[in-house]
Amino acid sequence: MKKLILAAAIISAGFINPVLAQTTTTPTTTVEVSKVVNAEEEFNKVVERKGIKNGFLSVADIEGVVFKPQAIKITEFYSSIDKQPGKLTSQPKLARISANGDLGFTAGPYIYQNGKTEDDKVYGDYLSVWRLDAENKFKLLINLGIQHPEPQHVTSTDFKEPDLSKQKAASKELFNGKKIIMDNDNIMNHSLELSSLAAYKEFLSPEAHYYFPGFEQITAPDKILKFLDNEGISISAQTTNAGRSTSNDLAYSYGKARIKKGNMVNNYNYVRIWEIDAKHKWNILVEMFSTVEN
Q1: Which helix (H) or strand (E) element contains residue 264?
Q2: Fewer CB atoms near the end CB (10 Å): N or C, the chain?
């Protein structure tokens, strides 16, 4: 495990390389977390007016993915269906944006209703990753959701402004930043196979948020570790893709997982949001697992 931690520290030190990114877009306006929150809220308004299918198509990044049940491009999936029935409402409660303003995410509760009674309501949480396009508009890069019983607690709002001291000029080298995040994600996954608790102790941010099907969100490392221990969760996972902001302070990864919970074993998709700390180490700020269902 010590070798794994040492390797993670070496990979996390990717800050010594040139600034790496997935896009060369340079924001032209002040960087504020409200910009990504506004993108989510405008998306929700379009969904309300035009329906779920047209809502997703209106904001899809050219490489944007949803999980239906495996990762598939948003444009490919929603262009292939006639209509997605029902009403979807959601509310951003957690949000961050990179120092350069080109990458952000929101998360929060949603309600899906395909009927007229209270019994027809499905409750859960969503996680959306947004990326700035060439026209400086946020487009939906990743969307994942989980289901759980009707919430018993009101979700507090957690919007945090970026650390502008990390702001840098955008890199002209496309996709090179991907490798550092892929490597960190792979090390996390390898560590999980050895010890889930030890892996999370090493990689969780002090402000970590954890989303698991059937449960309301869990915040803070001590509560997450207690949940994993109480539920008897063990995880094996494989990285599919990753990327990071041009300012090298916010990143994402996603992949597939097989999770044993007690005596039950199921397949899952996962999305992780990574943030870099003052010591230039990448930590997991958000993790969401969603059960793979046909």
Answers
A1: strand 264-276
A2: C
Residues contacting residue 157 through CB under 8 Å, at least 6 positions apart? 93, 94
CB 272 within 8 A of CB 254: yes
* pLDDT tens, residue by residue, 4-40: 443 443 333 343 233 333 444 445 457 899 999 999 9
Q: Residues 256-291: pLDDT tens digits? A: 999 999 889 999 999 999 999 999 999 999 999 999
Q: Pick the closest to residue 260 from 285, 287, 228, 288 (CA basis).
A: 228
Contact partners, residue 8, CB within 8 Å, separation at least 6:
184, 187, 188, 191, 202, 203, 281
pLDDT tens across 58-97, in order? 999 999 999 999 999 999 999 999 988 899 999 999 999 9
Q: 202: helix, coil or strand?
A: helix
The rounded radius of gyration (Å) of the Cα atoms in the chain is: 18
- CA count, 13 A, side-chain hemisphere, 89: 4
The answer to pTM > 0.90 is no
Nearest Cα to 190, choosing from 236, 158, 233?
A: 236
284 to each of 17, 70, 202, how far by Cα in Å? 21, 22, 10
The DSSP string of 59-108 is HEEEEEEEESSSEEEHHHHHHSSS---SEEEE---EEEE-TTSSEEEEEE
Candidates 230, 119, 69, 248; CA nearest to 171 is 248
208: tokens are 């970590």
CB 129 within 8 A of CB 145: no
Under DSSP, is residue 229 helix (H, G, I), strand (E, B) or coil? helix
